[in-house]
Amino acid sequence: MKTNIRLLFTACAAALVTGCTNLDVDVESQYTEYPTNEIAVEAKMADVYYQMRDVFGRRYMEAQALSSDEYTAVSYGGGWYDSGAYAHPSLHNYTYEDATIDWMGQLTSGITKANKIIIELGSNEAGATVAPARAMRAFFHFILMDCWGDAPILDHAMAEGETIDRSPRADVARFIESELKEIIPQLTDEVNANTYGKPTKWMAEALLAKIYINWPVYTAASVDLYDAATAKNEKLNDCIALCDDIIKSGKFNLGSMSYSKKFGPDNGSHVEDFIYVMPYDTYTAQGMQYGRSRCWKDIKSCAKSYFGMKLSQSGGGYITMTPEFASLFNLEGDQRNNCVIGGTVHVYDPKTYLPTDEIAVDKNGNPIVLTKEITLVKEGDIELGVGDNINGYSQGYRSVKFFVIDDDFKNGRNQSNDLPIFRYADILLTKAEAIVRGGSATNGDTAMSLFNEIRSYVTAPTIDHTPSLQELLDERGREFLDENWRRNDMIRFGTFESEFFPHYKGFPTANFDKTRRIFPLHKDIMNTNPNWKQNPGY
Length: 538
What we know:
A two-stranded antiparallel sheet has the order 1-3. A two-stranded antiparallel sheet has the order 2-10. A two-stranded antiparallel sheet has the order 4-9. By secondary structure, the chain is mostly helical. It is built from 20 helices and 10 strands. Helix 16 packs antiparallel against helix 17. Helix content is 35%, strand content 6%. This is RagB/SusD family nutrient uptake outer membrane protein.
């Protein structure tokens, strides 16, 4: 396990509090003077750094993955239907009551906490002292505008009774840009165990590069008016400059370990590819539960699971890969193929996280065989039922990227796999994309050379031409499986309204309206902020 994280959270546990959804939170300081004790300051900062841990560990993932072509939700005899909370994103048929989008309040609470620290430490004039809190405030605003479009700009302590309207998405994007450009020189450029999971100069630059590559999306007059085929991006060279700064820093690389090892339960600050992560630990930093949703449904009954050990907890198994996305993992020799199980399933080595020659069997000793295609069955009014039996459990390929071990899984299914948010691999592919879209090639890099850096480190076939946008989108799908960028990518590349299981035009409740590029405001947010209007189309 990650000893350094456990020690940090032991020191900071008393400071962690539950977030709220009310924007009218009094952020007056409870201190006459802010305590200068380093541990007290670190505890306050940690409360902001890890504000989204629970959300990233489940609900944020569900909202991003299930609304993209990466995954769909299925129900077993009504189990895991939950009033359609998981089926609705898969069909772009969200409602304002869905549990998968009930976490906006965690973001606004995190911003409120960041503002409190900024004020107590001397406001923006405090420079490097408050720069980490400002970076997190910018990051939270980014998620708000990416997921909900127009968003409140919460850049000050709100007075008692003050209300705030949502600002146009483009204004929010420009606010974040301004914040990041101001604080990037003030943030630490150190990369070590002490800065792991915290905002650094490189995290802020990666975030700004992400905003710049999506600039036409975020600055469109409305979400439905962005057109990938005609959009012009004025920020491409700015995006490339940020990527170059990260590349030239020498602080990161694609790493010498296998692809699978980057994402195992023993990953951490030694992974050179990680620019910014959310750290997890089964005891001291809980919330990571990807395995629960992606496991084969009947995995607990297996004498030996395909993870190479008996699991003491059941798998929910309600998230399964779409046939279209599973088909991406077809490159000969590609290490990333090992992260996807389909067809006849093999047992994995729990030390290397790689498949062995041993075939995984169910409780009756029969081989576990997963089908790429998903066959739905009629289950009353349930939209995505597959049947509560072995046949139903075996619909769709599964991911084992965030590998499960029972020592973690038995502890409430809380895994110790750290979740990367920004990676060096993303910087390389972002620069390649910016060049293909019309940006200037720099430092001898070409879109092909950058693309082939990714292909080479995962031992996949290289290419001999400039990658097309479709090739870049496909490669991003392979490289960033399970990392919550697929929805963001599909919107930018213009494929979010495409057909993919079960988001087919013949499916009665599938929605293809472009307003679905953002989520509806949850009913709790609407109740708390009655001056806000629901997003168009909902």
